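User: For a reading group we're discussing how well predicted structures match intuition. Take Glycosyltransferase. Before you show the prediction, I'll give you the sequence so everyone sees exactly what went in.
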Amino acid sequence: MKKLNVILIISPESWDSHTVSKHNYAITLSQQGFTVYFLNPFNDTKRQPQIIKIQENLYTVTSSKVAKGLRYYPGFLRHWLERRWLEKLEKKINAFIDTIWLFENSRFFDLCFAENRLKIYHQVDLNQNFNPKKAVTTSDICFCTSNIIRNNLLKFSTNIYKIHHGLAKIDSNIEIKREQFKVFNKQAIQCIYMGNLDMLYLDVELLANIASHFSDVQFHFVGGYNKNGRLYKLSEKLTNIHWWGKVDSTIISFILKHADLLLVTYQEHHHSDQSSPHKFMEYFASGKVIVATYTDEYKDKRHLLEMVDHNKDYLDAIKKVISNLDYYNSHDKQQQRIAFAQEHTYEKQLDRIFTLLKKHQLV
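Assistant: Thanks. Here is the predicted 3D structure of Glycosyltransferase, as structure tokens, for the group to look at:
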């Protein structure tokens, strides 16, 4: 059995990027009394690790690469260099890091460097596909967010467990600027898409076509975008779109509460890559109806959303929902969605993870 007190989370996304699973696990763990260090992607301008306190028990770490071209080094040398890097970090923070929680497999993928520490590999994205075999076989236990990812990882080990994306706690002390919500015109149906609007997998043609076709519906595109991006170019002349840009994650739940319907629109040939998007839990928590392109993780939960198997049927699904919003957003249906989301808060996901760690006598 191993201790779990001081945790190093290794993330492919920086702390300052959009808040997703890695960030929320870090926040929730720190709120439960664990000391968490969140390692940002490497920054070669930092000759010494830079430690920044985010909140009580939670710090970010920014560091230069362990060594250039490290993945090509012999295993024994790579282990030694990464172990030396870890020991230098421990010396700087004056603490022993007893747990490595790896959310990627492009660096530190060979967890042998962590020796007898608790080693967790947690894959939340299918496209994290650099060195999954080594990450799985050198970890103590593995978690993932979808059946598709789990089936891929089962080729390397049977010690793989699916834990859905979680729902982040809403900070009740957040001050909301009410004027920013005046863009919601109560005379029109409010339709929201939330996410990176320049994302490779987004079906921008479909999204632009929907906004063009339903000219009497008010669309809200919430997320970062480039004015030279394809979606903006396709739909910049449409007057029924409000472009929010990137927003602070703390106000997302307040935005979604204004929706009548929520959109998920990924390209058909990328459906497997987007088998369990993070946004679903936030969508479900709003209670509002979701119209989604095919999403494998919810194929057996169609009572919670309206999902089409093929993108060509998406427009008709929108028409069907808009024509009967009272039914799709009935009290009972909204409560079902909210209840599902509340069963998957990050606190409850961590309870499930700790139960599995104890079952395997890892803590």
